[in-house]
Structure formats: structure tokens, C-alpha cells
Write a sequence for this structure.
């Protein structure tokens, strides 16, 4: 299991990251799940193809979306995104970290912060 550390703020942004490594896992994401535990999240993307938006169709709970660039810097945070929404494009984003609603604010994360991924 991996975790995301906000290097800029010195906080743990996400303690337990599930990576959506395959096309099927990326397409499924968090759909159909009852919720996310505190400290849990899903990392989608990170490859050579930009990941500029996310949808929350078929989801049952709101989430925070933390869009990251190629250098794992926060490009944009979309807090408390409700089910059945589609985000606006986030230019420069290569990955998104999906967290339980309120997680980004609790960790004082902001655009420009540097995120480091490490094994836990």
C-alpha cells in the first residue's frame, strides 16, 4: 500500500492509496462502493496521457478530487464533488487522487503543493 505525503505542508494527504492501474480499474474507479474510509483514496492516471477531468456518475457519496501534474504538484482541488457530476477540464493534470470529502481541507492542501508517494 502507498501513501501520499504533502511535502509542502508536512502532512499525510492520504494514508492508504489504492491505485487504479488498469484501464478497467480506471473506468470503474469508486463506482458502486458505499463510501471511502477516512485516510483512504484512489489514484487514477499518472501515465503519459493527460487525465483532465473526472466524473462521479454512479457514485453514492461525495469526494475531494486532487488533480496532480507530471511532477506530482497539486494543480487544482475540487472539494466535496457530489455524485452524478462531471468536472471542468483541468489543463496540465496527469493524475487525480480521489479522497473522502473534506480530506484536502483537513490536511491544508493547496494548489502548488508538492506531493510525494511512498510505500507505507
Amino acid at each position: 500500500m502507498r501513501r501520499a505525503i504533502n511535502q509542502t505542508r508536512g502532512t499525510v494527504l492520504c494514508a492508504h492509496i489504492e491505485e487504479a492501474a488498469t484501464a478497467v480499474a480506471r473506468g470503474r474507479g469508486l463506482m458502486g462502493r458505499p463510501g471511502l474510509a477516512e485516510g483512504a483514496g484512489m489514484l487514477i492516471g499518472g501515465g503519459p496521457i493527460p487525465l483532465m477531468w473526472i466524473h462521479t456518475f454512479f457514485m453514492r457519496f461525495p469526494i475531494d478530487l486532487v488533480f496532480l501534474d507530471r511532477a506530482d504538484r497539486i494543480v487544482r482541488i475540487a472539494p466535496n464533488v457530489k455524485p452524478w457530476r462531471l468536472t471542468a477540464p483541468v489543463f496540465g493534470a496527469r493524475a487525480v487522487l480521489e479522497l473522502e470529502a473534506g480530506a484536502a481541507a483537513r490536511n491544508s492542501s493547496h494548489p502548488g503543493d508538492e506531493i510525494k508517494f511512498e510505500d507505507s
Observations:
- The chain has one domain: 2-119.
- The longest helix spans residues 23-28.
- Residues 2-119 form a domain with the Jelly Rolls fold (CATH 2.60.120.1140).
